[in-house]
Amino acid sequence: MTRGLSTAEIATDLLISPNTVRGHLKAAFGKAETFSRGELVARLFAKPHEP
What we know:
Elements: H1 7-14, H2 18-32, H3 37-46
Helix pairs in contact: 1-2
């Protein structure tokens, strides 16, 4: 995702279904309290990692 890959491209690279990718992204958005890929990437790289 941080490389700008689409859901389908991520699924192909990881040998999983696009629905599985969407589920993992949704979980990541919830844990990071974000609503978009851009916001998630910004949060990952803008702040130091928190425990």
